[in-house]
Design a protein that fits this description.
Structural class: mainly alpha
Number of domains: 1
Strand content: under 5%
Largest sheet: none
Order of helices and strands: HHHHHHHH
CATH topology: Clc chloride channel
Mean pLDDT: 87
Low-confidence stretches: none
Number of helices: 8
Radius of gyration: 19 Å
Distance between the termini: 55 Å
CATH class: Mainly Alpha
Number of strands: 0
Length: 217
Amino acid sequence: MNEIERDFRTQSQHLLWSVWRGLLVGVTAGAVVSLFRWLIAKGAAFSVAIYEDALRNPLLILGIVLVNLLIALFIGYLIKQEKDIKGSGIPHVEGELMGLLHPSWWSVLWRKFLGGVLGISMGLMLGREGPSIQLGAMTAKGLAKGLKLSAREKRVLIAAGAAAGLSAAFNAPIAGLLFVVEEVYHHFSRHVWVTALTASLVANAVSLRIFGQVPVL
């Protein structure tokens, strides 16, 4: 086997590994973000029903205000416990990929998930894009830790998880890939491209399997 053949085989193996890891990230991140979407939809529908009842029974408004206040205090408590869950979460993902932040993936994941479901369901002025991206990134980080990947490979998986999160949130796999290239992972390479695209496509497939082809806004 000459040097060109060895190089081709090595690149092919790396490409297959990129696809395989992207598949794992897409399945896990897609499942987490799809569950996030589903719970938000159920919670929002419940909130709308409560507000409709309040139109007929004004006394319910006091109860709604009290419950919303308690939920807001609880979300504040979660943020006090884990400061990396505040905001959209996108700057935190960017900061980690630049080596500036090193949050605990599980601490951020479950608190962001719970706080996001409660906050968006009760009607706070925030969307699911940022939280979905951070949830996807933290899911991928946990996967990278379980696979005991190197620091460089972990960054690639985190970027792919961010792409998968956006893809599952809005059924937009190409947008997920472009988001990573433009906003998150500025050092673009074929390894990043293949992993992120595979994760986006698989996460989109998971989301479509659960929600079908329906409008998301």
